[in-house]
Amino acid sequence: TSESTVRRDLNTLHKEGLLKKVHGGATSLKDIKINTLDENVEYKQSLNMDEKLSIAKEAAALIEANDLIYLDAGTTTELMIDFIKDSNAVFVTNGIVHAKKLIQKKYKTYILGGEVKLTTEAIVGVEAVNSLRKYNFTKSFIGVNGVDIERGFTTPDMREAMVKKEAINRSKKNYMLCDSSKFDEVSSITFAEINEGKIITNYLTDSRYRQHTEIMEVDKE
């Protein structure tokens, strides 16, 4: 058979949820790999930059006047700040770099208290969760390490998962920023189920996700 036929068949089987397409071929859905590695910010900033920029721009356009926004730590959420145009919104963040960029743009900004985590430059843990409990957000924008229909939205670190979960619980609308490489990926800790937030992605390759939550595609083919 031809290479193009194999590729087309793999795409079809992937979309139907019968296997997972990967670089160079495919793997069984039963072969679930749990990612326990927490990469540092510098490494993450080198990955899928074009996709992250398009997602960030689309997400920033959702911010409206008088919003109280929770902006989660993460490389895609950080990129959002460059595209925010409504200065009447108020921001709460656990991202150290995020807070600095927001105040440099003269946005009213609050930063959570708690443990400072070096690898992700985020404020995490129990104290950060306690800081969140005074707020009621109109919208939250959450970074994810992986999203899976069965396992939901995941991250490798329990301390960060606690903060993400509390922010989601305290927000009227939740947006998960997730480039296409994060789909069918599973990290150690689930912080939200698949139906707890609208996904903003560059392109969805597996239509099954639409049955479980709302998807906003930025770069449709």
Structure keywords:
single chain; 221 residues; alpha/beta; 7-stranded parallel β-sheet; 7 helices; 16 strands; globular
Can you tell me about this structure?
This protein is α/β, with parallel strands linked by helices. 29% of the residues lie in helices and 27% in strands. It is built from seven helices and 16 strands. It has helices at residues 3-15, 41-44, 49-60, 75-80, 96-104, 126-132, 158-169, and strands spanning 20-22, 25-27, 34-35, 68-71, 90-93, 108-111, 115-117, 122-124, 137-143, 146-148, 152-155, 171-177, 186-187, 189-192, 198-201, 215-217. The protein has a seven-stranded parallel β-sheet with strand order 6-5-4-9-12-15-16, sandwiched between helices. Strands 10-11-14 form a three-stranded antiparallel β-sheet, covered by helices on one side. Strands 1-2 form a two-stranded antiparallel sheet. Strand 10 and strand 11 form a beta hairpin. Helix 6 (126-132) packs parallel to helix 7. The longest helix is centred in the N-terminal third of the chain and has 13 residues, at 3-15. It starts with a helix and ends with a strand. The model has no long low-confidence stretch (mean pLDDT 89).
How do the helices and strands line up, and which of them pair or pack?
Elements: H1 3-15, E1 20-22, E2 25-27, E3 34-35, H2 41-44, H3 49-60, E4 68-71, H4 75-80, E5 90-93, H5 96-104, E6 108-111, E7 115-117, E8 122-124, H6 126-132, E9 137-143, E10 146-148, E11 152-155, H7 158-169, E12 171-177, E13 186-187, E14 189-192, E15 198-201, E16 215-217
Parallel strand pairs: 3-13, 4-5, 4-9, 5-6, 9-12, 12-15, 15-16
Antiparallel strand pairs: 1-2, 7-8, 10-11, 11-14
